[in-house]
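Private note to self, pasted from the team thread so I don't lose it. Backbone tokens:
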């Protein structure tokens, strides 16, 4: 095995370790067939999203263009208590780079160093649906990660951040993630 391959494997393991992926999650990722994708470094073109952001029944995450599942009632009406300012976004960027970028990429496009090993792939926050998702959905998703249906059934490797990030830190991340799909 070449030193380049060993280095790439070590980097992937380090990224997964930093994101708190467990051995169970890694084994789950291996058991899913590869998703179709374009040539290395490109993303598969998808139709623009025009439907509702949330639905009671959906085939997401198997279909990345499908509406997202409705969050449980205790999350549905939550609103981000923080305001996007240069200071909050700078703090949020640091949190994102330390915790989310290994999978979602530094630019939030779902292309982080660990992304190619994950199935389902990490979300690309630049898509139109992400501009429509309510705060409560984001908070539920960041809090519970891939540990709840339908994400757990699809083998999502996203860790639940409720045990390692405070609610304020999770809200900061949501501010930053929403900035990727905000109108420029």
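Design output:
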């Amino acid at each position: 095995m070449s030193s380049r391959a060993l280095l790439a494997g070590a980097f992937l393991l380090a990224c997964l370790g930093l994101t708190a992926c467990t051995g169970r999650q890694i084994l789950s990722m291996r058991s899913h067939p590869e998703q179709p994708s374009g040539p290395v470094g490109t993303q598969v073109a998808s139709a623009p999203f025009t439907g509702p952001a949330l639905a009671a029944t959906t085939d997401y995450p198997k279909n990345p263009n499908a509406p997202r599942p409705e969050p449980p009632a205790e999350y549905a009406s939550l609103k981000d208590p923080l305001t996007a300012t240069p200071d909050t976004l700078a703090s949020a960027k640091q949190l994102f780079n330390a915790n989310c970028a290994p999978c979602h990429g530094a630019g939030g496009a779902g292309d982080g160093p660990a992304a190619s090993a994950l199935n389902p792939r990490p979300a690309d926050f630049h898509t139109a649906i992400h501009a429509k998702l309510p705060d409560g959905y984001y908070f539920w998703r960041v809090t519970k990660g891939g540990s709840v249906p339908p994400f757990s059934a699809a083998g999502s490797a996203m860790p639940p951040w409720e045990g390692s990030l405070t609610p304020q830190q999770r809200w900061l991340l949501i501010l930053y993630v929403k900035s990727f799909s905000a109108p420029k």
